[in-house]
Amino acid sequence: MASIISKYISQRMSVLDLKKELSRLRSEYNRLTGRNLFIYAADFNKGKQGIDVSLMQDDFYMIQDILRESDKKQIDIYLETPGGSGESAEEIARFLHSKFEEVNFVIAGEAKSAGTILAMCANNIYMCSTGSLGPIDAQVRVGRSTISAYDYKTWVDERREEAAKKGKLNPFDALLISQISPGEIYGIMNSLQFAQDLVEEWLPKYKFKDWITTETRGLPVTQEMKEKRAKQISEKLCNHMDWHTHGRSLKIEDLNAELRIENIDDNPTLANIVYRIKTVIRLIFDTSTDFKLYFWEDCELARSANVASTPFNKPAAQNDVKSIEVVEFGVPCPKCGKEHKIKGYPNLSSADIRRLHLQVNPLVKDNDLLVCDTPGCGFTIDLKPIKNMFENQFKKRVTLK
In the UniProt record, which is one GO cellular component term (predicted)? Predict the structure, then answer.
């Protein structure tokens, strides 16, 4: 049986086709589960290229704007994020629970750090074998480095104990300690405590809300038991000594005993849909400049990265008084790697471009699609994300040719 990704690649789908497929899969998920899926995903690979794909306040504003008029009572959030702002995760969680009676999270890829914090506000968590959460200790900026708040606090505590025992520190540690202000130390401790406090507040309130009896002995579950379990989980998620790295992947088996996570793989039909959603999202990111996706009902939004370009003024045709703006850039074919040269003309229509006899790439069609002409390739490249990016940049309508 062919893999999911190979099936999609063999169809040579454009980004536009892939987004239509993602919407179709979202509808299939809704029909099968009777629930309503919202997709929020960020591209980890573009994050490694210097683009900020982290969970931030702008994401809260976007999610709030998309969902604020919804009349649904329940929502499932498909979540993929490398993490980011814990404060933004808190804003999103509070909005979701003020708007919906039930909030669930679907984890088929990675939802790390602030993404894990956000998932802890769920009434139910659904995970695939490929899904992973991560440690929730805050990442803080110290000097030129971003490090784990837990590691930093542990190191400071160890130096404090050493000084208390020996009456002094070695010169190297003493030099480092002298460069740390009390405000920095308190800020780091507060960042670490903030994540734990959210988890300890949300788990009893939402995830454990309907826990009535214990699984093994059938004893009544008290509020005190819920709070104790929440504290154990928050400490486990914050404890770097258990996980060793902030990027460690925590799977179903690492957390299921404490959280009772629903395994999507137990339902093969549902699992097939969710794995396809995950694959299509990856293909959209790999074949476009998009680095964030927001899909909900009739709303399909994306954030796109800038493409390197060289704007210049082209001498005007004899009958035109003003100079003509041109943007030139290259677009590599995701399938064969050939780079196609494209020109963008702000405030000119296709008819204007033909009338002025301006240079064009004949492979670019009026629907902003380019079909690669490499023999045996024929991959269709959707140029709309790039066009949207230039129109946002220039605040003008741009025609790609």
Answer: membrane
User: Which residue do the tokens 């509808």 mark?
Assistant: 27
Q: What is the pLDDT of residues 305-358, one digit of tens each?
A: 754 444 444 444 444 434 677 878 788 887 787 888 888 888 888 888 888 888
Q: For the chain, give the longest Cα–Cα distance.
A: 89
Measured CA to CA in angstroms, residue 66 lies from 63, 252, 303 at distances of: 5, 30, 14
**Residues listed for the chain:** 401
Check: CB of residue 138 under 8 Å from CB of residue 86.
yes
CATH 3.40.50 is the classification of domain 4-134+249-304: no
CA atoms within 13 A on the CB side of 12: 13
114 CB-near residues (< 8 Å, 6+ apart):
54, 55, 81, 83, 84, 85, 86, 88, 89, 136
Distance CA 221, CA 187 (A): 36
Residues 6+ apart with CB under 8 A from 84: 54, 55, 56, 59, 113, 114, 115
3-state secondary structure of 251: coil
pLDDT per position as a tens digit, 1-25: 468 888 888 888 888 889 999 999 9
pTM (2 decimals)?
Answer: 0.71
| Coil/strand/helix, residue 28 | helix
pLDDT of residue 11: 84
Q: What radius of gyration, in Å, describes the C-alpha atoms of the chain?
A: 25
Torsion of CA 53, 187, 92, 113, to 10 degrees: 50
The sign of the dihedral angle between the CA atoms of 305, 56, 98, 124 is positive
Under 8 Å CB-to-CB from 46, ≥6 apart: which residues?
Answer: 53, 285, 291, 305
Q: Which residues contact 94 (CB under 8 A, 6 or more apart)?
A: none
Q: How far apart are CA 14 and CA 18, in angstroms?
A: 6
Domain ranges of the chain: 4-134+249-304, 139-185, 310-400
Beta bridge partners of 111: 81
CA distance 301 to 62: 9
Angle at 313 between CA 311 and CA 315, to 5 degrees: 150
